[in-house]
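Q: I'm a student working through a structural biology exercise. My instructor gave each of us a protein and asked us to get a predicted structure, then write a short paragraph describing it. Mine is DsrE family protein. I'm not confident about reading structure output yet, so if you can add a plain explanation after the tokens, that would really help. Here is the sequence I was given:
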Amino acid sequence: MIKVTAGADAPERCSQAFTVASVAVASGVDVSFWLTGESSWFALPGRAAEFELPHAAPLPDLIEAIMAAGRITLCTQCAARRDITQQDVIDGIRIAGAQVFVQEALADDAQALVY
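A: Happy to help. First, here is the predicted structure for DsrE family protein. I'll explain a few features afterward.
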């Protein structure tokens, strides 16, 4: 599990989370990637393309890589605070809350990273 709370407000921390998740997926790790706080905006089509950080992989490419073999979840409360609904998000991104997060965190082989 990787939970990212940072967005454009903390670009290096945000990019690190996406990079670690995509590398983990490419390495065969089952990744559950959670968008919370300011990173919630990246669940919307086109928003990741607006993110820029020198010497970092483009977020749209990292999102595609994560979704290829992992899953991306947008926090329910974070989505609600931003008036984001399931119809608004990129196909394949789900909206779920704390109960699902805790279930995944307590899975037998789960390890969590928070950015």
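A: Here are two points you could use in your paragraph. The chain has one domain: 2-114. Helices lie at 11-26, 59-69, 76-81, 98-105. It's a good idea to check both against the output above yourself.
Q: Great, thank you!
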